[in-house]
Amino acid sequence: MDQHSLFQISASGMAVEKLRLDVTTANLANMHSTAGAGKALYRPLQVISRAVPLTFSEQMGQIASGGAEVASIAPQDVAPRMVFEPAHPDADAKGFVAYPGVNQTSEMMTMLSALRAYEANVVAMNAAKTMASRALEIGGQS
């Protein structure tokens, strides 16, 4: 496996986790937003990632590749959170206001998981960089 492939794999994982953090942040930021007159209510989003599909030669070990990629960013199918606030300007006839169905606990767990995965990819990339550096040092001393 060449060093470039190692860096590509870690970089693709870091990109996916960065996007996961961005989407989680957007969900948390819009947690208390309401739908104004004639506007749609914010729907929490979810990043769906997958492993990069390998070709036949890659699967046979001739070429090292792989990594992760974003398959899609899909809105979650969750019901809005209804809160009784009759004085709110966006309240319905019964006094309820619809807020996005963002689960704060779940979003925080997603954020922690994405942070740890990002850190793991950074460690893997640094290890590959150290190995490449050491290989150059060994090759230069002969």
From TrEMBL:
Secreted listed as a keyword: no
Primary location group: other
Pfam families for this protein: Flg_bb_rod, Flg_bbr_C
Keywords: Bacterial flagellum, Cell projection, Cilium, Flagellum
Flagellar basal-body/hook protein C-terminal domain ranges (all copies): 94-137
Compartments where located: Bacterial flagellum basal body
Taxonomy, superkingdom: Bacteria
InterPro entries in the record: Flag_bb_rod_N, Flg_bb/hook_C_dom, FlgC
Residue ranges of every copy of the Flagellar basal body rod protein N-terminal domain listed in the record: 8-37
Family under the similarity heading: Belongs to the flagella basal body rod proteins family.
NCBIfam families membership: FlgC (TIGR01395)
Subunit structure: The basal body constitutes a major portion of the flagellar organelle and consists of four rings (L,P,S, and M) mounted on a central rod. The rod consists of about 26 subunits of FlgG in the distal portion, and FlgB, FlgC and FlgF are thought to build up the proximal portion of the rod with about 6 subunits each.
Protein name (record): Flagellar basal-body rod protein FlgC
Organism: Massilia antarctica
